[in-house]
Inverse folding.
């Protein structure tokens, strides 16, 4: 196999599937309304959706209390309505080819398991392992590399035999901390000011360089 890689692990949201920003917008508006906040800058929705430090966005852009915001947000972010606003990117089809070539495929996502299950059903790729961050079960959110370690163990590969592909700053940090080859998937939806990926691709077809 190319470059000694045996496995590819993927982030889910924004990497394999995409959710209409209008979905986030609706939930944020409802959440803030409940908290007595009726005006917020439009661009804040995009900041909230793409940035890793969402607590900062909630505080600085929405002027909302972080814990109270999350409690309501999760209450309104119902898996079914999220799934209805989500579709897979057309280029995920290439993962079948890698699977056929014998690569092991995994997913490490910060989504809640119920959301992840609905989203994965849209992708139709037989992943060998799916890990959802779950701090109370010992799998912290990215950029902690714990979920990647968990995938490596399940896939029975070592860190230098795997790549991790993601569209967010937390993905790149988690991969670098786990010492797997980090690949930033730039879908052209958001520009991160401070991102230093080892490799960058603009669609999943770019993985042909590595796999
Ligand atoms: Mg993502």
């Amino acid at each position: 196999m190319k470059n000694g890689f045996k496995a590819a692990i993927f982030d889910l949201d924004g990497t394999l599937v995409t959710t209409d920003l209008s979905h986030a917008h609706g939930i944020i508006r409802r959440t803030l309304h409940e908290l007595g906040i009726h005006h917020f800058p439009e661009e804040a929705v995009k900041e909230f959706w793409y940035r890793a430090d969402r607590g900062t966005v909630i505080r600085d852009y929405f002027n909302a209390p972080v814990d109270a915001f999350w409690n309501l947000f999760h209450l309104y972010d119902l898996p079914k309505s999220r799934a209805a606003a989500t579709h897979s990117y057309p280029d995920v089809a290439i993962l079948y080819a890698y699977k056929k070539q014998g690569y092991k495929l995994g997913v490490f996502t910060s989504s809640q398991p119920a959301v992840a299950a609905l989203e994965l059903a849209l992708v139709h790729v037989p992943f060998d392992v799916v890990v959802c961050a779950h701090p109370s079960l010992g799998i912290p959110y990215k950029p902690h590399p714990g979920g990647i370690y968990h995938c490596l163990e399940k896939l029975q590969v070592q860190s230098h035999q795997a790549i991790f592909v993601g569209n967010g700053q937390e993905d790149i940090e988690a991969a670098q901390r786990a010492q797997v080859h980090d690949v930033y998937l730039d879908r052209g939806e958001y520009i991160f000011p401070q991102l230093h990926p080892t490799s960058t691709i603009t669609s999943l077809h770019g993985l042909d360089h590595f796999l």
Notes: The chain has two domains: 2-18+86-209, 21-84. The first helix runs from residue 21 to 34. The mean pLDDT is 94.
